[in-house]
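[Discussion] Sanity-checking designs against the backbone

I'm trying to build intuition for which residues belong where. Below is a structure token string of 397 positions. I'd appreciate it if someone posts a full sequence so I can compare it with mine line by line.
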């Protein structure tokens, strides 16, 4: 890469397309701006920001039949304007599932795309949208190299006892094992903690990524030791619309008693369960915290209880824990959830400083508490940009 080169990151979901633009001078990455297209499929709305201020905006009234290309054109046009003659050196994509094959970022060619297509059943909420964005970029900018950055990759290197299910071995050989997700976020947090609290980062941390999707990761000296998600992003914590860990017998019961098909079970477990299913009100934690409906309280109680129980499991996987870090939408913005979790892990040495928890930035545990507790905003785009740069050769190489 040379001065003037830039990297565009894309995170394509079912109804949104998030992007960031980074200047990639040798040895440094600087964010030039970011934004998103929301409401895809309904009334799409594109907003780009520079230094937090809106720098471009566009609405489309009839989005139902629109392909990704129209939104990408708007993003590329905005990016060109920011580059002032510089070159877009690569596009880095968030890709949820990299399966067993990808332990790090990879250039996206036809062969790699075929491998990633085959993983779609393992991440039906995300993988098809992630890959559609790659294909759309290929159609409009075939000349720009594209790189896949995988949520699973950070967890490669788990001990076999961590990644193995109690199933006959033939299935493991075919790839049926625990992979883990949210790795782009965990990699970012591990890096931030190395800067902010190097001693803690060299020790044993549990990072709680609590967004619409939610998981915990046990990180020891910067490496993932265990995590709550498995083959798919359904396992572990209760999430916005996903059930989290479930007795597998429940699935048999649903099939046998209600005659549910695989597609119906998938819809139930991915889209109609979790906070939404338990509360019957909303998948959005803000709505539940603002509600005085007892079902909202039930959903929050379950969300907190499962985090607390899995913190115990992650601590066990590392033989103890020195720090707990909250991140993502709920982790960064909901002091009440942090307080409820920390009250219930007082046995591990957690004690919050209430004022610091209310402020929610940096270290929030009381001075001298045995378990350090932190709140750190995640930045998956920064990880995508750094990983993308690592596989794009510089013209001077
Ligand atoms: P995603 O997994 O889609 O990236 P986010 O990390 O943006 O999700 O997190 C979304 C979640 O964060 C939602 O449940 C939302 O309610 C929650 N959230 C955002 N802001 C707040 C807030 N101020 N208080 C409580 N929850 C919040």
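Best answer:
Here's mine. Compare freely.
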């Amino acid at each position: 890469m040379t001065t003037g080169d830039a990297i565009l990151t894309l995170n394509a979901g079912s109804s949104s397309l998030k992007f960031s633009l980074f200047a990639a001078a040798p040895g440094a990455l600087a964010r030039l701006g970011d934004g998103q297209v929301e409401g895809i499929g309904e009334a799409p709305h594109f907003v780009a920001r520079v230094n937090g201020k809106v720098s471009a905006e566009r609405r489309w009234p009839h989005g139902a039949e629109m392909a990704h290309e129209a939104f990408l054109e708007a993003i590329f046009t905005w990016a060109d304007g920011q580059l002032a003659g510089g070159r877009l050196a690569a596009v880095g994509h968030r890709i949820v599932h990299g399966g067993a094959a990808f332990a790090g970022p990879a250039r996206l060619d036809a062969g790699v795309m075929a491998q990633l297509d085959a993983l779609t059943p393992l991440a039906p909420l995300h993988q098809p949208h992630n890959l559609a964005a790659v294909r759309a970029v290929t159609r409009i900018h075939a000349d720009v190299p594209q790189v896949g950055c995988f949520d699973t990759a950070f967890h490669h290197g788990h001990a076999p006892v961590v990644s193995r299910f109690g199933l006959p071995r033939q299935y493991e050989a075919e790839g049926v094992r625990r992979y883990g997700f949210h790795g782009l976020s965990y990699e970012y947090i591990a890096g931030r903690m190395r800067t902010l609290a190097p001693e803690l980062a060299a020790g044993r941390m549990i990072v709680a990524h609590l967004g619409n999707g939610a998981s915990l990761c046990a990180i020891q000296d910067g490496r993932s030791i265990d995590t709550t998600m498995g083959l798919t992003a359904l396992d572990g914590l209760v999430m916005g619309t996903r059930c989290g860990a479930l007795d597998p017998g429940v699935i048999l019961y649903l099939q046998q008693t209600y005659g549910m098909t695989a597609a119906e079970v998938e819809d139930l477990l991915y889209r109609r369960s979790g906070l939404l299913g338990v509360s019957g009100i909303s998948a959005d934690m803000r709505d539940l915290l603002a509600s005085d409906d007892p079902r909202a309280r039930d959903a929050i109680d379950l969300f907190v209880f499962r985090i607390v129980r899995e913190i115990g499991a992650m601590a066990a996987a590392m033989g103890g824990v020195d720090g707990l870090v909250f991140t993502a939408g709920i982790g960064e913005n909901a002091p009440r959830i942090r307080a409820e979790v920390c009250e219930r892990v007082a046995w591990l040495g957690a004690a919050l400083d209430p004022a610091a928890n209310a402020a929610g930035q940096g270290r929030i545990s009381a001075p001298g508490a045995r378990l350090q507790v932190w709140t750190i905003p995640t930045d998956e785009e920064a990880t995508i940009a750094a990983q993308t740069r690592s596989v794009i050769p510089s013209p001077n190489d």
